[in-house]
Each structure stands twice: as C-alpha cells, then as structure tokens.
Amino acid sequence: MPNLASAALARSQERFVADCADQEGTLFLLTWVRADYDGAMVRALRDKGWTCTGFAETSEASNCEDKPIRKRWKWRFLCPVEQVKQQSTLTDWI
Asked: Is the pTM of this model over 0.85?
C-alpha cells in the first residue's frame, strides 16, 4: 500500500494527541530511528512535521535483557504537538 508508513504515523499521532496529550500537557512527541535506516518511516516523519534533533549512542538498559537494537546508533526525532493535526498538502511539495 503506497504511503503506509506516513498514513500509519499520521493516524497514530492524531489519536494520541486527541486521547492523551492535551490531558497530560504534552508539548512534544519523541521517537528514535536506527541511524542506519533510511526508509519510508524517515520520510514520513519529515513529512509530518518531525525534526531530527540529534542522535543517541549505543547503550544498554540496566533493567532489561540484552537486545540487538541497543547496539545501534539512533536518530532522535521531535514533533511539536500543535503540528500533529496539520496534514501535508500538495503545496507543501511545490
């Protein structure tokens, strides 16, 4: 399905903001993406108002079992909650 990552991201953001963010006073959403991954989800994040604000080095959680994802660098993306409700339009691409 074309644009599946973008559509799923947009829907889940909208649902979270509608159900939780206003009640909790959330100002930003945060997610991490593997630094060696350059796929549809990275493009979807950028399209939906997310900004790459840095990276996280590899780390090990002290309270969880060892998992391969922790051995990878990850990009940090932030999105202001007020931008979540904005959908991109054709004029955003022109």
From this structure: no
